Amino acid sequence: MGTTPRPLVGVKPSNSLLLLAFLLTFVLVGSRGESNAMDNVATERMAEESHRQDSANLLIFIMLLTLTILTIWLFKHRRFRFLHETGLAMIYGLLVGVILRFGVHVPQSMSDLVLSCAVNASPATLLVNVSGRFYEYTLKGEVSRSKGHQVQDDEMLRKVTFDPEVFFNILLPPIIFHAGYSLKRRHFFRNIGSILAYAFMGTVISCFVIGLIMYGFVSFMKVVGQLAGDFYFTDCLFFGAIVSATDPVTVLAIFNELKVDVDLYALLFGESVLNDAVAIVLSSSIVAYQPAGDNSHSFEAMAMLKSFGIFLGVFSGSFALGVATGVMTALISFHMLRDFPLLETALFFLMSWSTFLLAEACGFTGVVAVLFCGITQAHYTYNNLSPESQDRTKQLFELLNFLAENFIFSYMGLTLFSFQSHVFNPMFIIGAFVAVFLGRAANIYPLSFLLNLGRKNKIRSNFQHVMMFAGLRGAMTFALSIRDTATYARQMMFSTTLLIVFFTVWICGGGTMPMLSFMSIPVGVDSDQENARRNTKHESAWPFRMWYNFDHNYLKPLLTHSGPPLTATLPACCGPLARCLTSPQAYENEGQLHDDDSDFILNDASVSSMFADVTVSTDASGSHTVNRKRSSTASTGGGPWDEGLDHELAQAENEVAIRGTRLVLPMDDPVESVGSFHHRLQYHS
Amino acid sequence: MGTTPRPLVGVKPSNSLLLLAFLLTFVLVGSRGESNAMDNVATERMAEESHRQDSANLLIFIMLLTLTILTIWLFKHRRFRFLHETGLAMIYGLLVGVILRFGVHVPQSMSDLVLSCAVNASPATLLVNVSGRFYEYTLKGEVSRSKGHQVQDDEMLRKVTFDPEVFFNILLPPIIFHAGYSLKRRHFFRNIGSILAYAFMGTVISCFVIGLIMYGFVSFMKVVGQLAGDFYFTDCLFFGAIVSATDPVTVLAIFNELKVDVDLYALLFGESVLNDAVAIVLSSSIVAYQPAGDNSHSFEAMAMLKSFGIFLGVFSGSFALGVATGVMTALISFHMLRDFPLLETALFFLMSWSTFLLAEACGFTGVVAVLFCGITQAHYTYNNLSPESQDRTKQLFELLNFLAENFIFSYMGLTLFSFQSHVFNPMFIIGAFVAVFLGRAANIYPLSFLLNLGRKNKIRSNFQHVMMFAGLRGAMTFALSIRDTATYARQMMFSTTLLIVFFTVWICGGGTMPMLSFMSIPVGVDSDQENARRNTKHESAWPFRMWYNFDHNYLKPLLTHSGPPLTATLPACCGPLARCLTSPQAYENEGQLHDDDSDFILNDASVSSMFADVTVSTDASGSHTVNRKRSSTASTGGGPWDEGLDHELAQAENEVAIRGTRLVLPMDDPVESVGSFHHRLQYHS
């Protein structure tokens, strides 16, 4: 073990080399005779060996996932529920980490070269001149903190530690896209104001509260002498940013299964999805403003403003990019590709992935872009896909999400033992737990109070307690903290974050069920009944209504096969333009609707009256209510995950359309017809 | 451009370092002051820049694929057929390659270090000590042949050039697995003897013929002075091995669409799938025996035998591994996971991928393992999956195959311009084309003659000409040749191989249709009619019959939910064992069959008589004929790609079963019943 580098006598560099700081030329220690043929063979052998070990390492993860799947099945089969599958994946990861750490001893390969140099920075690419041939080496990351030039590198463990970029480029996009694609937009947009408040303001509050508390702790630790390295205020803020991101994965799974109150679900899920994005942008803007000339790592108002500007720019840029790609995909699948499910699915997949890459290449945040791309795809593109492609895309992203999620959680477990530069500082850990708890409280309770001032259906206190409790930290927190583990501060953050994630996933995740029953929050709620029962005034706010009308009358017809044709919605003077923009397929589609008016029927109060009998507070004239109903009743407005219901309702809609009158609903016996409708709703939801 | 390394004064190494040849320690040129904070920032900046460029590079490929998909759609939409989609992908790749090469000029980044050292070999991993912190660098490959220490590295082009390992580990497995999974096993196994002959003997013959011809050419070139580097006999043999692999991708697509004669299709496809595997093993065993002590690169009988031993060992090991994983997956999905399509699909995917990794980690050939894994999965596991998972797995692998295939072909196009060490030697290229042509001829014609001696239905001469013509070189040839492009010989091989692939895909691939009509080979053949018409004696050879019976009576019941329960097939003395091995589900399944005998009905001669009226040579007593019919009629024997037919037939089978007698077929009017059966067959095929 332990290859010992021996710094030899330094050589005085020439002047030209001093000018080019990064252009370094090294000299060989021990020049050898040429035997080219043997070189090739040795290189090939080594490459083969390395390839074999890479395969073995990847195999470990595949086996871990397989094991997790089998255990998940067992749990589902036996109806165990005390541990969520992500927690399970983490436990398996832990076990394998222990085995790799203490059980396996791979002989140290002799193929590692150790180069010593005191360059300012490690370059991303190295070109090594080996006997006149140039080999390219890419930076894989820092290996371990060398103490007195002693590299303690267990090769196996080092290789098992992934490039953090893999998380961002490969594993996170499918998870976030799936979250956007499967979002229940109806409930989400009904609570959009509160969700945005929690996600934006809440996360910023939480970030600063945690940052300040941690700064207090760190300062105290410095005084006591517990701190072995630098820990600046910006580091504290950075820590606050990364641990403020709550995880949608576990929340989604638990609450979806339990069928908890739809508003609570929407709030928690919406917050956790969006605050991932907020945390990414926050942390990267903290890093970005850090190097602006000063090494003081202190807090400045100007820098703060700049940071805020970066934040807004990056967020809105990513948002625009994601929506743009979604719209482009909708347009492509609107005008072509129909009847070729394989091509459609492939295009859908590629476009969604390219959103992420494009955003990253432009310097925006891929995760934010991919989230809004997912939402746009579900809102527009989904309606243009053939039924087979709808199934295929759903299933594909479900699978990718499942695999990525379990991979991340088992990797988290593994890292606790395989990561080599852990810094567990008990005081820092205690401080972090306190700070995370207080930060979450400072997010939820004050904001809920403020929001309740404006909300018609209040966020009750038991809801607030559950939101406080269910703020699990998961994949995003982990990914953000593993991204850079170069300094002492970052290593301590990483180790602490890992513990926070473990604790919240196991304890808070596992305790959600008891918590819900303790808070007497009903589970097993039928979301559509719930939906029908609650008719909230605050939804019909004018910006939302305007957006809905614009979307329904212009965007949907332009981008999807649903909605009225543009010729009908645009003013008469725009006739030629409308005819030009409406594709032949749209006219075909129009033909299928049988009646130009059929779409408006559902915009009419008549439909809302279908539900009016069972709603508590009837709002027959409110156009928004109608609109919302419309979005829940038309097949064209359905998201990927509730088209069963939508299909059924679309049939009803068609019946309406076929009769060709504006008020054809069976109003003679409203209770019965509503009853039968409800029966269908319940059956399908 | 061009970072110039300047070798400085060498430093005398200490003794201990001389002992450890690979453990080198370098000294810094130009020691710098410590400014740790700035380091981090610079490192982060550079990592960010590198990440951004990586995203942009990947984006190029995604855009290429998107463009290809849209054009494929256009072609399908307009019913163009003169160019196959893989050819199209290649053209787009070429265009982008030209643009990147001549259009884009990325400023040379200053972040490249150039290290000079005359080490014997380039290690797989470098540890660089940067101001006391260790960074790991991994070998990405040789950059370009440096002429007089001048590194001409256009960074963009270099980055766009993928790690060849990506082909082997990411892109090839799904293609080969899909080939195995979608294999029409009925036709494949009917011609298994001929396919094995072409794939094994044919490829070896072709390899040696090409190797010898190339050796002649190379020797001549050496005399004439046209050769600028070393080119040994083993290099010639290696070249023979890599260009002997014919490509299943294009063949599959063209012939599948045209519905050509099933036997011709089976022969061509079977050969091309298996000879990929043969070429891999051949080429790696040629490389493996090369370094065995001697640097003479000459041909030795002993080495040849050793090579042959390696070949057999690797091939059979990979085969066994692939089958073992397939069987394991079948067992898992037999005993659990049913009712959870997501888990099933995920497990199926992971197990299939782990086959590949396991084989590579063990030193076997992943591609061979994954091919047989695919066949096994289709034969056993597929029957255990829930209908939803059957669809999901089919669609998933179809998509992966499609993406990987188009990616490879567009990458091929790109490489023609982006690869920086091309060696185009006109004489070598002419020689290679001649050699490839003759090698193919030496494979097909003599073997066909020999096979025709034993075959009942001869391989006609027009079939032979088509097989000769349709021996396209594709993904595997490319992947094998790009794997190592370090030496002059390998670079020349790579460039030549690229041209061969382009030529065969565009000219031979595009010319297949005219060729078929010129050879007066009928297209649009109904495979099942064909199947029924032809009843070949050679199929009922005893090894095949024995295997079938064993498979049907013991393996299928043990591994799938189909076939008779073991309690019925095992002798009475094994009753307890049989009962132990048969899971509760199997008994349930047994219940569904309504009648223990129902399965045997179809083993009886009565079923074969269903088809007997329309077959040319009736063979009512041959148990194999019956068996084959059984495999085409029972839903349980159907492969992933023809379950539509199988489902229909299963219903018929059920009708038989329900009546509960052994001879219930409507024999009173056989012509009519066969007619109606045929109607269904035609409808579904």
Name a few traits of the molecule.
685 residues, Na+/H+ antiporter like fold, homodimer, mainly alpha, 68% helix, endosome (chains A, B)
Note poorly predicted spans of chain A: 1-37, 108-112, 145-153, 532-540, 589-685
Average pLDDT number of chain A: 69
Gross morphology of chain A is globular
Number of strands of chain A: 3
Description:
Chain A has 685 residues and is mainly alpha-helical. Chain A has a domain at 164-291 and 301-525: Na+/H+ antiporter like fold. Helix content of chain A is 68%, strand content 4%. The first copy, chain A, is built from 29 helices and three strands. Chain A has helices at residues 15-19, 36-78, 85-103, 155-160, 164-181, 185-190, 192-224, 233-243, 248-258, 262-289, 301-335, 341-362, 366-384, 387-418, 426-454, 461-469, 475-482, 488-510, 512-518, 527-533, 542-559, 566-569, 575-581, 584-592, 598-601, 605-612, 623-633, 643-659, 670-684; strands at residues 112-117, 125-130, 133-145. Chain A has a two-stranded antiparallel sheet with strand order 2-3. Chain A is globular and about 75 Å long. Chains A and B meet through helix 2, strand 1, strand 2, strand 3 and helix 12 of A and strand 1, helix 2, strand 2, strand 3 and strand 4 of B. Chains A, B: Pfam families: Na_H_Exchanger. Chains A, B: It is found in: Cell membrane; Recycling endosome membrane. Chains A, B: Keywords: Antiport, Cell membrane, Endosome, Ion transport, Membrane, Signal, Sodium, Sodium transport, Transmembrane, Transmembrane helix, Transport.
